[in-house]
Amino acid sequence: MNNYFNRIKELMKMVPVELVDLSQPRDFARTPTQASSNFITNKEQGDWAENLITTAFNETSQNYVAVKYGKSDDLVAGEEGFDSFYQEFQNELDTIGKRPDLLIFKKSDFQSDLGFDVSHIPHEQITEYVKKAVAGIEVRSSTFLIDRYEEAMQIRSEKFAKIALETKNKILAEYKDILSHPQRESYIDILNGITAKTLNVTDFKVPGWRSNERLIQINDLFKQLKAAIKEFQKRDYLSITPKVEDIKVVYKWIEIFNVPHFYFQVFFDKVYGISFEQILQIISNPDNDGVIFSIESDTKNQNKTTIKINSKSGVEIAYKVNEPNHESVRKEMDRGRLLFYVTFKGGTAYLNIANLTNILEIEGDF
To answer: What whole-number distance in Å separates Cα of residue 240 and Cα of residue 218?
Structure first.
């Protein structure tokens, strides 16, 4: 662990400045003014995922303890006290960086007097304690069943690949005379270049021919071909989702505490994990862009720019998750505004102990 920060520091130098520029200050964050039902449901799901991992850890391990550490509060935007809580959170980001949701301690280092939740303790009071942790874990949640998703994506990819290749062959077989015209023959080269291997990078402009019936027919086939290719090219994996803006503040936290940092992505059937170190290795290599990670605006998270890394680049932390119970909750805001959201309770994560101890580099009995 002594060399951990130095490894992270060297990796940060390799991350493209177009993605993360450490020379620039952290972007100013405006205080949210009003929560939505969807936002609160997402927060409830995130809290459930965090509790799922905590419970699984503490009920399974004989020698390690999971402790809640991440800054959080039951207040939401629009409630009294939220503004001061949010400003305190922003100040802490600039002081020590972003706390991971959970800390993992050896039981011999666990301070029972502080308990299993140190999230509300000012950081300066627990600095030396935090440095004793063997890992910090950021818990992210997803609304998917990953096994079902991958099965569906495999079927979808095969379906649209078949449509695209059959449409291409139909155009070449039935409309070669039209494409042989000197102003249109470049489309023959485009079509010949479309194969099962090139579907993921193929793009072209639909001609727009409309002056007779056959031109309309071939133009419609080109539309069908482009639509099928577009569907085929959609991202076909579920992801572990660190936000770009978090890279800086996670790095700052590691710089101060020198504790290995990890992301755990909780699906409703499994959990996958990846180290922050591996995340930096992946995003530093441009050959991985568009292959095992992508950069997207996340509509689920206020359109914040998010790194979406193929979950299978990480390791399976829990081989099975029992789904939680869920129920609707009514929340009355100021001025009588009502919000209805979903809350989650229960559920069990069955840990893959070998994978978990390997990724956290835990030696000896778990």
So the answer is: 42
